[in-house]
Write a structure and sequence with these properties.
28 helices, alpha+beta, 5-stranded mixed beta sheet, 28 strands
């Protein structure tokens, strides 16, 4: 049998043969506390009773289980020899009956990588916390099952845990005779079952609603986190967003929340943002803010809460058959996160954040050599793991936003309502959704799907303006092209519903829209007849209001206007779209990176949207690190450092922009006077009016001091003593790895690459510290070591750690043709490497190649 990597063909064969009636899973996690069990992995007992039917009696199949050992296996009352039927990842099932009962008694391993049942020891108080994380296929690390999304079943869990612990699962639970027993779930997929256990801090509330038929719906609400984070836990705001979301989705979906209670657990060392386990959603605990953050952080948390809530319908109630149609849950949830945020909460600018931040993720992913249609070709579980990407989430959500413009919001939502009622607790494919949308809209959804869901690549839209002798528009056209440096096999030109906006400066100097037209762009060139005769514009904004998914380009006049007057553009969404377009031009080597940095230095201080401002900071830092000519990098760093300090000092005391500029200043500080100011802000000898240097900001200031050799090991140890928490430990580990020493880099490399002693969170922190832009010479020896190690790391470590290492340690800072050649040499010599590993290396190669093109563009601008 193959190892852990289940293929799509195997899953289809098994689904055609079997159907599942139910699971009973008994876990004993009392071993999570106390001394370790000898020299092997720490394990817990897992006993699974699995009842299923086979439509071909006498046939053979298999169950999935990844475990160090199996104590006993019985099939239909026959005891089987575990050594004969279990190979470490699968249990062979021979001579099946029409109705079957499989019982598996196993010793499963606790995880330190965030996969399966993760065990975390809080350094602050020694308490142990457990939680599960399964997507796409790690429930088999906790109990025996059929690990594929289309074999849904009801689940009953029971858990034996230490006396002082509380345990949660998908269903409501109670402790009886020392055992936590949970209500049976509705039919759900294995990957969204969940157990959380430990001495968590737990807060409760409730949601009530009278349904249209007059019945009262009451949903118990809960929110939990580690005890150490309880003082920072603003559960009231979490519950507020939760109730607003439940109201919104009940109003729009016409299908009551179907899973009983609604707990939300904020857990440590989490690999994802969150996971939609019905009745028990899990989040990374960084969504509990230990220090002052901007409203962008609260908006981001609200978006995630609503995203996961949308999954209760899109993904949990109705689930895709296989990971090819992952978009059926993730694209919809990503769209609904912004849609509900705007419609139900205080975050009315969520579509601006979507346009500026989420779509940037999609644009990058859609230009990589690994780009794929929204409905992807997922051959196996490794493919599935890598497809939780910007295409499946943000491009898919953008396509849905375009779909709403195409069919209308009412038809779109009515289609969703029919979809839920028609396929409740079942599994679907693309055609199932398209059929209901055709019913409600009367549109040809197959043609739309072919263009938007079944092709890859991003288009660019550029305005062409011809003026009459009188200075009015004689003709305005939109030119559509395949993306710059797009994959050769993805030249698709799509139909777009776009708004084209015309802007001019007013007498007061502001840049405002004076004309707008919506048009269906189709093919290489589309004339916008409605704007003929309008006054000559200073700025033409294609995709005004962000109706479609495209890269916006500018004509020469518009680009010249933005260079001088970007800060005068009054509409915040239009301004965000212009910034996004300029960043895409920088990444595509159409705008010198130093010009983009200049625009940030000139206009970012006038940006009113805090989320947009923080995105500009990230882009400016990326431009400096990757896209400016190497000979200008030091100059650019000085300009950014001085500009950030100027804006920091000029920002309103105590406001969010001041905090954002403080963090950006720390990220780019390099000169002695700047580092001295950071030291002074830490020891209290320096003050900036209104800036509160809380613990999280202290670590932000220490990171550059460590990277520049100003804060040594003793300083970092003293700071950890001040903040002796799990969060503090992660910060300290990152700062320790950032120090400018060959010995430090060698130690960090060994800890991540040569050892598996670190948890997933500390691997992530070490990699973040290891890769410092100012330390290129120290990192030069690791290019050869990287290519020598990655195939072994991929084979020996979990897929999550493998992804972290392959992505995080790629020598992107060794931005030269030599590194590109070394990457190509590895790819040529490893054509038979795991496809998922090759994909990661190909993506990193593409980023490096793009950076070199950007540097060449920037160098040419200086000549």
């Amino acid at each position: 049998m193959p190892g852990e990597n289940l293929s799509r063909d195997e899953a289809r064969e098994r689904a055609a043969l079997l159907s599942v009636d139910g699971y009973e899973v008994s876990l004993d996690v009392r071993s999570a506390v106390g001394d370790t069990q000898g020299g092997g992995p720490r394990t817990f007992r897992s006993v699974t009773t699995l009842r299923f039917r086979c439509n071909e009696p006498g046939a053979s199949s298999f169950a999935d289980l990844v475990a160090p050992s199996v104590t006993a296996v019985s099939l239909n009352g026959r005891d089987l020899d575990p050594s004969e039927v279990f190979d470490g990842t699968r249990i062979a099932l021979e001579d099946l009956a029409a109705d079957n009962e499989l019982v598996v008694d196993a010793q499963c391993a606790y995880s330190r990588t965030g996969e399966g049942l993760h065990r975390f020891v809080d350094p602050e108080d020694g308490e142990v916390y457990l939680y599960t994380q399964y997507e796409p296929a790690d429930s088999r690390r906790v109990f025996a099952n059929f690990e594929q999304p289309d074999l849904k079943a009801p689940f009953r869990f029971e858990v034996r845990a230490p006396e002082e612990w509380t345990v949660w699962s998908n269903g409501a639970g109670e402790r009886v005779d020392g055992v936590w027993r949970f209500a049976e779930t509705k039919p759900i997929s294995t990957y969204i079952t969940c157990v959380v256990a430990g001495p968590y801090h737990y807060v409760t509330d409730s949601y009530e609603r009278v349904l249209e038929d007059g019945t009262r719906l009451e949903i118990p609400l809960g929110a939990l986190c580690r005890k150490g984070l309880a003082p920072h836990f603003d559960a009231d705001d979490v519950f507020l967003i939760t109730k607003q979301g439940l109201d919104f989705f009940h109003d729009h979906f016409d299908y009551p929340y179907p899973f009983g209670k609604y707990d939300q657990a904020f857990v440590p060392e989490y690999n994802l943002g969150a996971m939609e386990n019905p009745g028990l959603v899990t989040f990374r605990e960084e969504y509990i803010f230990r220090g002052k953050v901007t409203q962008a952080s609260y908006e981001g948390r609200a978006n995630t809460i609503l995203h996961e809530m949308a999954h209760m319908w899109f993904g949990d109630l109705v689930t895709m058959e296989w990971w090819d149609d992952l978009w059926l849950k993730e694209s919809f949830a990503d769209f609904m996160g912004a849609f509900a945020n705007v419609g139900a909460t205080r975050f009315k600018d969520a579509w601006i954040t979507f346009a500026n931040r989420r779509k940037a993720w999609a644009y990058r992913a859609d230009q990589l050599p690994s780009t794929h249609p929204v409905t992807a070709d997922i051959r196996d579980l490794e493919d599935a793991k890598l497809n939780f990407d910007g295409i499946t989430y943000a491009k898919g959500a953008s396509a849905l936003k375009q779909l709403v413009a195409y069919v209308g919001q009412d038809a779109f939502l009515e289609g969703a309502r029919r979809y839920f009622k028609r396929h409740a607790y079942g599994n679907t494919r693309l055609g199932d959704l398209l059929s209901v949308l055709e019913e409600t809209s009367g549109r040809d959804m197959a043609a739309w799907a072919r263009s938007w869901l079944q092709t890859a690549g991003v288009n660019s839209l550029t305005p062409q303006v011809l003026l009459s002798a009188e200075g009015r528009i004689d003709e305005l056209a939109v030119v559509q092209e395949a993306a710059v440096i797009a994959p050769a096999d993805h030249p698709e030109l799509r139909p777009h519903r776009v708004a084209v906006g015309l802007y001019r400066r007013t007498g007061g100097g502001s840049l405002e829209r004076y004309a707008r037209a919506e048009v269906d762009v189709d093919g290489p060139r589309t004339v916008v007849a409605e704007l003929a005769g309008a006054e000559a514009p200073e700025l033409v904004l294609v995709n005004d209001d962000d109706l479609t998914y495209c890269k916006t380009r500018f004509d020469d006049t518009s680009l010249a206007t933005l260079r001088e007057h970007l800060g005068s553009l009054t509409d915040p969404l239009a301004r965000a779209l212009c910034w996004s377009a300029l960043w895409n031009m920088t990444r595509d080597a159409l705008l010198p990176a130093r010009d983009f940095i200049g625009l940030v230095l000139r206009f970012a201080g006038r940006e009113s949207g805090i989320g947009v401002l923080q995105m500009l900071h990230a882009w400016a830092e990326s431009a400096l690190t990757h896209y400016v000519a190497p000979e200008w990098r030091e100059t650019g760093g000085r300009l950014l450092g001085r500009g950030a300090l100027r804006e920091l000092r000029e920002a309103a005391p105590g406001g969010e922009p001041q905090l954002a500029w403080a963090r950006f200043f720390a990220a780019v500080a390099s000169e002695e006077a700047e580092l001295s100011l950071l030291r002074g802000l830490l020891d209290g000898s320096e003050k900036i009016n209104g800036l509160e240097v809380d613990q999280e900001l202290r670590w932000a200031f220490l990171a550059p001091l460590a990277a520049h050799g100003v804060a040594d090991e003793a300083v970092l140890a003293a700071e950890l003593a001040r903040d002796d928490t799990a969060s503090g430990k992660r910060h300290q580990v990152r700062c320790l790895a950032a120090r400018p020493s060959a010995a430090v880099k060698a130690q960090a490399w060994a800890q991540v690459v040569e050892s598996d002693a670190l948890s997933n969170a500390l691997v992530e922190a070490t990699i973040a510290g290891f890769e410092r832009s100012s330390q290129r010479e120290l990192l030069a020896p690791y290019t050869e070591k990287y290519f020598a190690a990655i195939e072994r790391v991929w084979a020996e470590r979990s897929i999550q750690i493998g992804m972290d290492v392959v992505r995080g340690l790629f020598p992107s800072l060794m931005d030269s043709q030599d590194t590109l050649d070394a990457t190509d040499a590895w790819l040529s010599a490893h054509e038979d490497a795991a496809p998922a590993l090759r994909r990661l290396v190909l993506e990193a190669r593409d980023d490096l190649s793009r950076a070199l093109r950007g540097q060449a563009c920037d160098a040419a601008a200086a000549r």
